[in-house]
Amino acid sequence: MLEQILCIDDDPITLMLCKKVISKSSFSHEVITAQNGEEALHHFNTLKYTNDKSKKKPELIFLDLNMPIMGGWEFLDHFTSPDYNTFNSVPVIVLSSTIDPEDLAKAKKYPIIIDFLSKPITIPMLEYLKKKISL
């Protein structure tokens, strides 16, 4: 079981569902959320500049692509930059409502993306991911 994961999505219902499904499947002890890429980067900036050892970095990120303020692709561009090199080893799973072939191709350009799944998240998906990441 993972200690903490981060779900980045602008839809509060999706975030609530994510928390419930992850909790039911014993996939992670804690689920934190961000409503867009900018909020997620702010979270990582806070981790970077804090001396609080109780603040831990997420071990996995579920990322939506289409969000206002800062979408998933823009988040990934920032997150994979040298500014975030202490965090950009955290694996990302794109969780999108559309499976556009262009998005699938673009995802292959980011080594930290380990999978591209269709919303909503389900217990069978998490079982598949447990095997994939050896939990």
From TrEMBL:
The Response regulatory domain sits at: 4-134
Name the keywords, alphabetized: Phosphoprotein
- Identify the stretch annotated as signal peptide in this record: none
| Keyword tRNA-binding attached | no
Per the UniProt record, one Pfam family is Response_reg
In the record, 4-aspartylphosphate modifications are located at D64
- List the protein's name: Response regulator
